[in-house]
Amino acid sequence: MLACEFQVTVDCEQLLARLDRMAKHVPRREPASDAHAFAVRRRHTLEALREPDGGYRFRESGHESEVHADPRSAAEAIFRRMLDLSLAVLPEFIKIHAGCASRDGVRLLAIGPTRAGKSTLMTRLLYEGFAVHCDDVVLLRGEEVFPYPRRFSIRPPTVGLIPQLAPFAASLDSDEGSGDIAFDPSDLGFEWSVAPGPVDAVFFLQPDTEGSTRLETCPKYAMAARVMAQSNLPIGGPGPWASDICTMLDRADCYVLYWRDLETSVAAVKDALLRCRRFDARIARR
User: Fold this and answer.
1) Higher pLDDT among residues 30 and 171, named by residue
2) Per-domain residue ranges for the chain?
3) Which of 87, 154, 160, 205 is within CB 3.0–4.6 Å of 112 for a Cys-Cys bond?
4) Percent of all residues in the chain with a pLDDT value above 70, rounded to a whole number
5) Are 101 and 107 in contact (CB under 8 A)?
6) In this structure, which CATH number among 3.80.10, 2.40.50, 3.30.70, 3.40.50 belongs to the domain 93-286?
7) What 3 state SS string does the chain have?
8) For residues 18 and 22, what is the distance between their CA atoms, to the nearest angstrom?
9) What is the pTM of this model?
10) Which of 110, 108, 90 is closest to 98 using CA atoms?
C-alpha cells in the first residue's frame, strides 16, 4: 500500500473472507519524478488471532494491542491501521481531506471537513460519467495530486439520495449493513484507477440546510486558507506547505459550493467544469 509492505496473518476463515472483500487492487501510476518516494520504505507485520475466550487479539510487529469482538471489527481495525501507517511513511507529501474526480481531461477536487458531503458527491458523480479516483484523501507535492486509494465510505441515509446504490446496499450481509457502507467504484460496476495530475477546479463544500444550493467564485488566497485548514503540515515545514498549495491553486478555478440538495449541487459542478473547458479552448485559440 503506497510505500509500505504489509504481512497480515489471521487464523479464521470468516475474518480472511472479510479481508479479501476489503483488499481491492486498484491500478495506479505513481509520478515518474516521485518513483523513489513510492518505493517500499517500511514493512509491517499485523496479526489478528482468536483468543481462547472469544474475540480477536490484534498485534502489530509482535506488540499486543486491543481485542476485537468479532471478525468485522477486527478486519476494520487492520485496515485502519494499514491506512494510518501508509500515510505516515510519506511525511514529505501534503495530505488534503478531499475527493478527486475527472471528466473529459478536467480534474477536480472536492475539499471539506468530515461530514461536509465529499463521499456523497463523489459517489453521485460516478453516475454522471465521471472517473472518481478517491473520496477522502489526496497527496500533494508540487502541482500534482495523487488520489489515495482506499475504499469509499458513506452513511446508510445516503442511499436515499443515490437510489442507484440500493441494490448494492441490499446485497450486504446484515451485520455489514448496520454501519457505514464501504465500497469502491469497481463494486458498482465502474472502472477504478488512480494517477497523479494537476488540478483544474477546486470546490470547497459547505452544507447549507437553510438556504439553496449556490456556487460562488472564491479568491485564490481565500481558498488557500481553506485548503490549509483541511491539510497537514509536511515534513518540510510551512514553506513547502504554502508553496505547493498555492502552486496547485494557481492553475485551478476555485469555488465554494454551498449545497442543500445533491441534484442541484451536481449540476453546479458540471456547469463549472464546462466553463473551465470553454476558457481553456479560448486560450488555445489565441
Assistant:
1) 171
2) 1-90, 93-286
3) 205
4) 89
5) yes
6) 3.40.50
7) CCCEEEEEEECCHHHHHHHHHHCCCCCECCCHHHCCCCCCCEEEEEEEEECCCCCEEEEECCEEEEEECCHHHHHHHHHHHHHHHHHHCCCCCEEEEEEEEEECCEEEEEECCCCCCHHHHHHHHHCCCCEEEECCEEEEECCEEEECCCCEEECHHHHHCCHHHHHHHHHCCCCHHHCCEEECHHHHCCCCCECCEECCEEEEEEECCCCCCEEEECCHHHHHHHHHHCECCCCCCHHHHHHHHHHHHHCCEEEEEEECCHHHHHHHHHHHHHHHHHHHHHHHHC
8) 6
9) 0.85
10) 110
Q: Residue holding cell 490549509?
A: 228
d(CA 245, CA 252): 11
At 137, list the grid cell.
484523501
**What is the C-alpha end-to-end distance of the chain, expressed in Å?**
44
- How far is residue 2's CA from residue 28's CA, in Å, rounded to a whole number? 10
Per-residue pLDDT averaged across 101-108, rounded?
94
With 50 as the cut, is the pLDDT of residue 177 above it?
Answer: no
Give the cell for residue 241.
506547505
Q: How far is CA 187 from the centre of its chain?
A: 16
pLDDT bucket at 37, cuts 50 / 70 / 90: low
Return the residue matching grid coordinates 486491543.
Answer: 66
